[in-house]
Write a structure and sequence with these properties.
Blueprint: H1 3-19, E1 27-30, H2 32-40, H3 49-64, E2 67-68, E3 74-75, E4 77-83, E5 93-97, H4 101-111, H5 114-131, H6 137-150, H7 161-178, H8 186-200, H9 204-212, E6 221-227, E7 238-243, E8 255-260, H10 264-268, E9 275-276, H11 288-291, H12 293-310, E10 314-321, E11 324-332, H13 337-349, H14 355-360, E12 374-375, E13 385-386, E14 388-391, E15 394-400, H15 403-409, E16 415-419, H16 427-432, E17 435-438, H17 446-454, E18 458-460, E19 466-468, E20 473-476, E21 479-482, E22 486-490, E23 495-498, E24 503-504, H18 510-522, E25 526-530, H19 534-542, E26 548-552, H20 563-571, H21 575-599, E27 604-608, H22 622-632, H23 636-646, H24 658-663, H25 665-686, E28 691-696, H26 702-723, E29 729-735, H27 738-742, H28 744-748, E30 753-756, H29 758-766, H30 777-782, H31 799-813, E31 818-821, H32 829-838, E32 842-845, H33 850-869
Parallel strand pairs: 2-3, 15-16, 16-17, 17-18, 25-26, 25-32, 26-27, 27-28, 28-29, 29-30, 30-31, 31-32
Antiparallel strand pairs: 1-6, 4-5, 4-6, 7-8, 7-10, 8-9, 10-11, 12-24, 13-23, 14-18, 15-22, 19-20, 20-21, 22-23
Protein name: pyruvate, phosphate dikinase
Enzyme class: transferase
Keywords: ATP-binding, Kinase, Magnesium, Metal-binding, Nucleotide-binding, Pyruvate, Transferase
Length: about 850
């Protein structure tokens, strides 16, 4: 078991920093084993736990020279969670634990600093009240704001002793009015705080975050108990967060924020907007580099030391108490896709890591951030406001002011969540939103960190916004923006615009292209695309596709000119009518195939013959029915009778695929004629050859395949005779039904390749329609009947087993059989790892998933090599 499994990420980081002789507060870590015990034993702690806890506290007292609960030299503690995988802001922390009236008085005398003592006490009361006693945080916030108005306080640095005394009194009253339990005993505080932190592991926000980021529920959280160090002791004290490289851009320069005379929660919660750590060419007057130059140099050296130790970018929390620097945490930094790629390639150039390590550092799913549009500033008017560029990318959506409204409105609109600041409880609303805009908070606030992790555009610290959540408006100068109004935010610049703005396509950075080239060098699994249009084909090539793995010919018919002809072909009451419709479709098919082949001339292109569930093409409105009857010169009642005859109860398992080719062979014959004619015309006109793969869909029995193969071969021979040439092509079939997988040995002897259609194979294995799955499957996941959606990630035990059986049996009768995947799973990184192990030759996904698949294919190869080495 690795150290993080036992100590959690935070505890392991503290242990490492201690071994490196870096300045950390004294403390101890309660392992994740306690969390497992706690949940297995009805939220109870082990019998001897309090004894062991007392011993650990005594050791802290000896190390610090202070006594926990003492009224002369009081020891105060921080109690922090520490999961194996970092979950920023999702779990609970309690600071200044051990405070009560007597301890506050003692702290006042030992430090001779009333403001510090009172401020520490009010912070403790608020944290303990909300986290342990579960009092709604709004009660404390409302009281705080009410007293600020009463005392004419507009800035945090205007807070005075009288204000804090009143706040302490009111906070205590809030606690007493909401709980009958005493809270002044420090040891009781500690026990309850530990239980509260353990409970936060299964809080709604923590569960949601783990689901969104595929983090397992085990091994639970560790707990870190440390001696408090205070960033709120005065002007020579501070708290902050620093990254060893920029987490948004990847620039090799430390990046972070800090607040003088504050505690850590002030920075990460976003309740105050902090100052920069670096001076940025002396533009930031109040930067740490300018105001605390010696401590800045010390911090910079520590950043270098930790990055070289971990060989990865670190996210470091620190506190300065009376001029002395302490490190509270180091962890692998969360970063944008852009930063991730730049950092990985830079570290290879710096000879810190290998190309393989660089590729393994990339989360393929985050690459979506780089594959979408950005704002076109050449056509823009002035923004209405500007904040901090907290997470890159552009987002347009309607304004909502609560997570609830975000979830409600997102069913019909893209939404921008606008908040004073975000809290961990907003996680669902943030996930569902297209972008996030906050008035308060900095680049290391909760909103910024979570948005970067999700790949959402985010603007923080837009101080000019005046937000009125009750009236659901925000104002900027003379501009008023209401709930439901459209705005655009640019998380790359921090600018905010009214309405929708012009966008430009994404561009690949030099580093992005480099990492993809490295991935292609390593991967053995080739990546193709699903494409039917010239635009799809061009996009696919731009993203690095090695060919087209699935051309769904029925998609070529979805336009206003072709659909009527397809309807005529399907509804035709006899062969003569059908041939008439087919003759009109033939030149359109030739034109479409020719355009596609011209773009893909030197790359393989796998054409799937027509496979539409017929209902997708049939008219449903009275106007469409009448238009169809008119175009076919048939009475309306004849058309309606034909529609009734073609009606299917379950069209996805009905008259489609090869069944269409058997009942209406003239349709497939027309398609083969169109394909080969297009190839021949390109050969004659441009001397371009096409690497053609012809695929028959939805085979369940080898006899279906033989019947269609026979007339296709005859059609090819006839066309070759007409053009006096030979066509070089391979013939394949889709394996997308369980019976086909089980009869793969017989089917393989008739074809050159298999392409596994994992969408239909999953549907038919589970007996679940993917179009209807959303109505009940969330309950399955909630009740843990299934742990994942098999339409997103391949079910390796069921569908995967059928694939393995089909591969084994197919290769037995046809050792040269080529193997491909063309379902949605071909773009899923976890599924790609399975396909690599199974011996698949290529995967085919949608164009915008190609870079993701290329990286995932390389990662699968690297993991496989590591397993073989061990």
């Amino acid at each position: 078991m690795v150290m993080q499994d036992i100590l959690g990420s935070k505890g392991a980081g503290l242990a490492e920093m201690s071994n490196l002789n870096l300045p950390i507060p004294n403390g101890f870590t309660i392992t994740t084993e306690l969390c497992n015990y706690f949940y297995q034993n009805n939220y109870n702690l082990p019998k001897d736990f309090n004894k062991e806890l007392s011993v650990a506290i005594k050791n802290l007292e000896l190390e610090s020279g202070k006594v926990f609960g003492d009224t002369s030299k009081p020891l105060l503690l921080s109690v922090r969670s520490g999961a194996r995988t970092s979950m920023p802001g999702m779990m609970d922390t309690i600071l200044n634990l051990g405070m009560n009236d007597e301890v506050c008085e003692a702290l006042l005398h030992t430090t001779n600093n009333k403001l510090f003592a009172f401020d520490s006490y009010r912070r403790f009361l608020e944290m303990y009240g909300t986290i342990v006693i579960l009092i709604p945080p709004g009660l404390f916030k409302d009281a705080f704001e009410r007293h600020k108005i009463k005392h004419n306080i507009y800035q945090e640095n205007e807070i005075n002793e009288e204000f804090l005394k009143e706040i302490i009194k009111e906070f205590k009253n809030i606690i007493l009015n909401n709980s009958a339990e005493p809270f002044t005993d420090p040891y009781l505080q500690l026990e309850k705080a530990i239980k509260a932190v353990l409970k936060s592991w299964m809080s709604e926000r923590a569960i949601t975050y783990r689901k969104l980021h595929n983090i397992p529920d085990n091994p639970g959280t560790a707990i870190n108990v440390q001696t408090m160090v205070f960033g709120n002791q005065g002007s020579d004290s501070a708290t902050g967060v620093v990254f060893t490289r920029n987490p948004s851009t990847g620039e090799n320069k430390i990046f972070g924020e800090y607040l003088i005379n504050a505690q850590g929660e002030d920075v990460v919660s976003g309740t105050r907007t902090p100052n920069h750590i670096t001076s940025d060419d002396n533009k930031c007057t109040y930067s740490m580099q300018n105001t605390m130059p010696e401590l800045f140099e010390q911090l910079q050296e520590i950043c270098k030391k930790l990055e070289l130790h971990y060989l990865d970018v670190q996210d470091i929390e620190f506190t300065i108490e009376s001029g002395k620097l302490y490190l509270l945490q180091t962890r692998i930094a969360k970063r944008t896709a852009l930063a991730s790629i730049k950092i990985a390639t830079d570290m290879v150039e710096e000879k810190l890591i290998s190309k393989q390590q660089a590729i393994m550092r990339i989360d393929p799913e985050t690459l979506n951030q780089l594959l979408h549009t950005a704002i076109d500033y050449s056509q823009l008017k002035t923004p209405i406001a500007k904040g901090l560029p907290a997470s890159p990318g552009a987002a347009t959506g309607i304004v909502v002011f609560s997570p609830y409204d975000a979830e409600k409105m997102s069913h019909h609109h893209k939404v921008i969540l606008v908040r004073h600041d975000t809290s961990p409880d907003d996680i669902n609303g943030m996930h569902i939103s297209s972008g996030i805009l906050t008035k308060r908070g900095g680049m290391t606030s909760h909103a910024a960190v979570v948005a970067r992790g999700m790949g959402k555009p985010c603007v923080c610290g837009a101080n000019d916004l005046i937000i009125d959540e009750k009236r659901q408006i925000f104002k900027v100068g003379d501009v008023t923006v209401k709930h439901g109004d459209l705005i655009t935010i640019d998380g790359s610049t921090g600018k905010i615009f009214l309405g929708e703005v012009p966008l430009i396509p994404p561009t690949f950075t030099k580093e992005f292209q480099t990492i993809l080239d490295w991935a292609d060098e390593i991967a053995t699994l080739k990546v193709r695309s699903n494409a039917e249009t010239t635009l799809d084909a061009i996009t696919s090539l731009q993203f690095g596709a090695t060919g087209i793995g699935l051309c769904r010919t029925e998609h070529m018919f979805f336009d206003q000119y072709k659909i009527p002809l397809v309807r005529e072909m399907i509804i035709a009451p006899n062969l003569e009518h059908r041939k008439h419709a087919i003759e009109k479709l033939l030149p359109l098919q030739i034109k479409d195939f020719k355009a596609l082949f011209k773009i893909m001339h030197d790359k393989p292109i796998n054409i799937r013959l027509l496979d539409p569930p017929l209902h997708e093409f049939l008219p449903t409105t009275e106007i469409d029915k009448q238009n169809l009857a008119t175009s076919m010169s048939l009475p309306l009642n004849i058309v309606e009778q034909r529609l009734h005859t073609l009606y299917e109860v379950n069209p996805m398992l009905g008259h489609r695929g090869c069944r269409l080719g058997i009942t209406y062979p003239e349709i497939y014959q027309m398609q083969v004629l169109a394909i080969l004619t297009a190839i021949r015309e390109l050969q004659v006109e441009d001397n371009k050859n096409t690497i053609l793969e012809l695929m028959i869909p939805l085979i369940s029995d080898v006899n279906e395949l033989k019947a269609i193969k026979k007339y296709i071969k005859n059609t090819i021979t006839e066309i070759e005779a007409i053009h006096k040439c030979k066509f070089d092509l391979t013939l394949g079939t889709m394996i997308e039904l369980p019976k086909a997988a089980l009869q793969a040995d017989k089917i393989a002897s008739e074809v050159d390749y298999f392409s596994f259609g994992t969408n239909d194979l999953t549907q038919t294995t589970y007996g679940i329609s993917r179009d209807d799955v959303a109505s009940f499957f969330p309950d399955y996941l909630e009740k843990k009947i299934f742990t994942f959606d098999p339409f997103n990630k391949l079910d390796e035990e069921g569908v995967g087993e059928l694939i393995n059986i089909a591969i084994k049996r197919g290769l037995y009768t046809n050792p040269k059989l080529k193997l491909g995947i063309c379902g949605e799973h071909a773009g899923n990184p976890i599924s790609i790892e399975f396909f690599h192990k199974a011996g698949i030759h290529y995967i085919s996904c949608s164009p915008y998933r190609i870079p993701i698949a290329r990286i995932a294919a390389a990662q699968a190869k690297i993991k496989s090599a590591l397993i073989n080495e061990t």
